[in-house]
Amino acid sequence: MQTSLLLGLAIIVGAPGPKDPPKKEPTIVGEWTGESATSGGMALPVPQGGIKFTFTADGKLTVHEAGGGKGGEAGSYKIDPKATPAEIDLRSAPRQGRAHAEAVTLKR
Q1: C-alpha to C-alpha distances, 4 to 10, 13, 40, 57, 78, nearest whole angstrom
Q2: How far is CA 54 from CA 6, 20, 24, 28, 66, in A?
């Protein structure tokens, strides 16, 4: 009996412990506030009252400018997480008078 008890304890002690859960990758999904944007090395003005970006898990994007109406402007996005730093390509319908931003800074 002592032999089987010792053997049982040896197996339990020698068994590998539980593995750490895999780390979650950062996600863009959710609502973000646009802080700044640049084009051609020059700062673009942030609309009075701000601008919100809403990203969904299926690659859709909605841009809400303060005072811009209820629905916002629909678009899509694609992320390249392998780039350093990670890159995101935002796509929306062209609009008269809107500048093309080369870099946008977002915060949660």
Answers
A1: 10, 14, 76, 53, 59
A2: 59, 32, 20, 9, 14
Q: Please answer whether residues 89 and 78 qualify as being in contact, where contact means their C-beta atoms are separated by less than 8 angstroms.
A: yes
Contact 25, 93 (CB under 8 A): no
Show the tokens assigned to 55.
């990203």
What average pLDDT does range 52-81 have in this prediction? 86
**Longest Cα separation, the chain:** 86
In this predicted model, what pLDDT tens digit does every residue of 75-107 receive, in sequence order?
898 888 888 887 888 887 666 555 567 777 788
Cα separation of 82 and 86, whole Å?
6
CA 13, CA 29: separation in Å to the nearest integer? 43
Structural domain boundaries in the chain:
24-107
Report the C-alpha gap between 53 and 61 in whole angstroms.
7
Alpha-carbon distance values, 103 to 20, 37, 78 (Å): 36, 5, 15
Measured distance CA(59)–CA(30) in Å, rounded = 11
